[in-house]
Amino acid sequence: MVGADPRQRMALIATIALTYVTGIVDAVGFLALDRVFTGNMTGNIVILGMGVAGADDLPVLGPAIALAAFTVAAFLAGLVLRARPKGWQHRVTVLLSVGAVTLAALSVLGGFDAHSSPVLQIVMAAATAAVMGSQAMVARIVAIPDMTTVVVTSTLASLAGETWTTRGGGVLWNRRFAAIATIFTGAVTGALLVKWHISAPFALSAILTGAVALLGHRRLVG
User: Fold this and answer.
1) Ordered mean pLDDT values, 10 residues apiece, the chain (222 residues)
2) How many whole angstroms separate alpha carbon 42 and alpha carbon 168?
3) How many helices (H) and strands (E) does the chain have?
4) 16: which residues sit within 8 A by CB, 6+ positions away?
5) How far apart are CA 46 and CA 69, in angstroms?
6) Contact status, residue 81 vs residue 137, Cβ threshold 8 Å
């Protein structure tokens, strides 16, 4: 990032922060919300398929609802951002702000003993997945290459098959590696915080998302 355009550098940092949030909430979803991925929809589809087959008492309803919530939110965010130029804009700030408020509300809901209420778990997982679906569309319009905030499988393939097979600087340390390392670190953080209380990772995610919305609006709009 040395020597890069300051606006591009800021957009990259913002996208990395959102990727970190994805790791946090995915850990919470899997560990505390009945093994539901809230950002990684590939994982949800696999769990849903195995659950439908009756394997190992895996959940079906939770992943299915989370998948639907992610899709609907991505669709609605796509309508909001449709025909808009690439880059940060006012509507990006609005979408991220709504996501931050939703995550803050989930932090409050987590105080109602989500572990003992399957219905509350599904509601929390669906709301989180909706935030991630909207966030994924935000990442697409901010358009930092190789930083989707929710997908690491294709990023890992690109890192191994494209980056590592070339010579020159940046082969080991680049934004593809950063995306993978960031979502991993977020998952570690989420797993540690959920041991303390389920509200904690949601609160941290809300703070980070709100900070990204504020800084992006101040530094990147216009």
Assistant:
1) 68 91 95 90 88 84 93 94 84 96 95 77 95 92 74 65 61 67 93 94 97 90 70
2) 33
3) 8, 0
4) 147, 178, 179, 182
5) 17
6) yes
